[in-house]
Amino acid sequence: MAGDINLELLVEYTDGKPRKTLSQIVHIPANAWTERSVTLDFSDVDLSNVNYLAYHLVLGSIATDGNTILIRRPKLEFGSVVTPFIPDDPETNLAKCQRYFQTSYPLGIAPGTSTSPGNSAVGIAFNTSATGWFQNFIFGRTVFPVTMRTNPTFTAYNPDTGKVNSAAQLHHGGEFALTAGAAIGGNQSGLSMDVNFNTGGAAKTLVLHYTASAEL
Questions:
Q1: Is residue 140 exposed (0-12), middle (13-18) or buried (19+ Cβ within 10 Å)?
Q2: What three-state secondary structure class fits 77?
Q3: Closest C-alpha among 115, 132, 136 to residue 210
């Protein structure tokens, strides 16, 4: 079914002025992919006090029971000339996102989920059979693939239980609390671990998941 779609751009101001709505109606044919572009005139809009811009599609006569409307590749840009649609590069987009958030969890796994030791986790080994002052300490560092925008907030998770501020002891079982005397931190370029076991004996391996957040 052919019909009209009203494309609206709502301007909400911060200084109490009434909302302003810019709109234009375009005709959509039936059963066909059709490229449509709309230019909305901003010349009389004071952008210095804009709180937000909201983009609406008012479906009009097409919005009838049984109709299916598919919209893909929307693009909103400033300027007086419509430019061709160029899809974003996924790798470039990922790198942009990693400036704000990074995690050791696999894609689709929420932070705090119980996984298994070694499953995309940070593994740091400490051999307590060493002699001297380093016998009770572990130092480790994981370098981020992308430098974050600022020093992030780090959170550690036990991969066995999902417990916060905890690590799993890979070969000896149980958990190791990452609290006083066990520091998880770092900077824009990576995560660092500085742990005092206060024990000797056999070698130990700590495994953990982490998140690093530098959200605005």
A1: middle
A2: coil
A3: 115
Q: Name 208's bridge partners.
A: 122
For the chain, the maximum distance between any two Cα atoms, rounded to a whole number of angstroms, is 81
Task: Report d(CA 108, CA 97) in Å as an integer.
Answer: 15
pLDDT tens over the chain, length 216 residues: 556 666 666 667 666 677 777 777 777 777 778 887 777 777 777 777 777 677 777 666 665 666 777 777 777 777 777 787 777 788 998 999 999 999 988 888 889 888 765 454 555 555 544 445 555 666 778 899 999 999 999 998 888 888 998 888 776 667 888 764 456 788 999 988 777 666 555 556 778 888 999 987
SS3 (DSSP) at 55: strand
Q: Are 210 and 123 in contact (CB under 8 A)?
A: no
The pTM (predicted TM-score) of the whole model is 0.60
Query: What is the rounded CA–CA span in Å between residue 5 and residue 140?
Result: 58
What is the rounded CA–CA span in Å between residue 128 and residue 34? 68
CA separation for the pair 37, 7 (Å, rounded): 10
Closest CA to 59 of 123, 7, 112: 7
